[in-house]
Design goal:
alpha+beta, 440 residues, Phosphorylase Kinase, domain 1, four-stranded antiparallel β-sheet, single chain
């Protein structure tokens, strides 16, 4: 067919079949062949041709690349990149569900591919598990631009006004009513529903027909993912619910925004920044520990490592004085700056305490995560420094009343006090005199 040798059918859908094939140059490709009975349908033929043109226009590692659109003896086809592997939908049907981490990583790859398509004016409108391919090497490929909408090119009127278009289980509620005018937020919804299926193994809406699905979606009437899979993290649950909001205004407004949400749900990546440090402890014994740059910097700030410590990025590499590294040079205390011992007293500079939270090198496992532990170590050091500052600061008992200032002597008050006192004395004398006269 047009120079391509069809080997075997690998997929079939409403528009036709997909074959594994050999290209004229000998490479393996996929050939999508439009069903014969659709050749006479002008709308479906245009949609088929548009799928090929749009796929060829896009270029992203996670998007299936189109190669050529052609016709052979009245049959329409287009060749595209062949993806060895299986779809997310097939994996779910076989294994029931993905791990949370793998589902997020797949969703992030698809979201980044969609963000690239959106930036070129294309809306997929049919994101679902069966359109996401997984290769044996772990690559993710989003396929099938058959329902894509081109917002920048000529309007071919392939979608009628007031008509729904898509896959009911995964399409956004607004796509049921007016697929022609939907924007990128419909892809956000569909990817959120796909993530729901990957981590729960179930469809988000158990609907018997499209109308039932539309009503449920419009009311956010689905079983919360945490009810189906109680072990899901709150971050993943939030990402799903945010994307599957019935109102487009309440979802991430762009796919780039949703990428940020998904990466946040995945959590911080483990740091590969590992340093090895050799130092002498208080007993003169040589110690060797490992940690991130942030952890080593924290130990230097807290004076737990002295300038004579040596460091290397390689466990078995060359160890150089720690102040030779630009990352730590500015953190080395000068000779005029005394170090603090753990009891808060000034200590000789050569005294080095064993870093809190670090094990003896004989017990350190190479496989232990460094990134998360590093921040924890740094937090402990910061807390300890604050504790030392509190010990050195004047003690103030919480809740204690301030010491009372002795009352000033009477003569330190203003002259009016003396005037008032004199008047009182005179009145007392006059009163006594009058009382004596009356008794006579």
């Amino acid at each position: 067919m047009g120079g391509y040798t069809l080997l075997e059918e690998v997929g079939r859908g409403g528009m036709g079949s997909v074959y594994k094939a050999t290209a004229p140059d000998g490479s393996t490709v996929a050939v999508k062949l439009l069903a014969a009975h659709l050749n006479s349908n002008p709308v479906l033929l245009k949609r088929f041709q548009q799928e090929a043109r749009l796929a060829k226009r896009l270029s992203h590692p996670s998007l299936v690349k189109a190669i050529e659109l052609g016709e052979h003896e009245g049959e329409h086809f287009f060749a595209m990149e062949f993806v060895e592997g299986e779809s997310v939908g097939a994996r779910v049907r076989r294994d029931r569900r993905f791990s949370e981490k793998e589902a997020l990583e797949i969703s992030i790859a698809v979201a980044e591919a969609l963000a690239s398509a959106h930036s070129q004016g294309l809306i997929h409108r049919d994101v679902k598990p069966d359109n996401i391919m997984l290769t044996p090497t772990g690559q993710v490929k989003l396929a099938d631009m058959g329902l894509a909408k081109d917002t920048t090119g000529e309007d071919l009127n392939l979608t009628k006004t007031g008509r729904g278009l898509g896959t009911p289980h995964f399409m956004a509620p607004e796509q049921f009513k007016e697929a022609k005018t939907v924007d990128v937020r419909c892809d956000v919804y569909s990817l959120g529903a796909t993530l729901y299926t990957m981590v729960t193994g179930q469809l988000p809406f158990q609907a018997n027909n499209p109308l039932d699905a539309f009503i449920k979606k419009s009311q956010n009437d689905y079983v919360p993912p945490e009810k189906v899979s109680p072990d899901l993290s709150s971050r993943v649950v939030k990402a799903i619910k945010t994307a599957m909001e019935a109102s487009p205004k309440r979802r991430p407004q762009t796919m780039d925004e949703f990428v940020v949400v998904l990466k946040s749900a995945l959590g911080p990546s483990k740091s590969r920044d590992v340093w090895y440090v050799i130092y002498q402890d208080a007993n003169g014994e040589k110690k060797k520990v490992k940690g991130s740059q942030a952890m080593v910097a924290a130990l230097l700030r807290s004076r737990k490592l002295s300038p004579d410590a040596v460091a290397s990025r390689d466990k078995n590499g060359e160890f150089l004085p720690i102040y030779d590294f630009p990352e730590f040079a500015e953190l080395i205390p000068t000779a005029a700056t005394p170090a603090l011992s753990l009891d808060g007293a000034v200590a000789p500079q050569e005294r080095i305490e064993t870093p809190i939270g670090l094990a003896d090198p004989s017990t350190v496992q190479e496989s232990e995560p460094v990134g998360s532990a590093s921040s924890r170590f740094e937090s402990l050091d910061a807390a300890e420094l604050n504790s030392r500052k509190r010990e050195l600061a004047p003690t103030k008992r919480i809740g204690a009343k301030p010491a009372e200032t002795p009352a000033a002597p009477l003569w330190r008050y203003s002259p009016i006090v003396y005037i008032v006192a004199g008047i009182v004395v005179v009145l007392l004398i006059v009163g006594a005199f009058v009382a004596g006269r009356m008794m006579r």
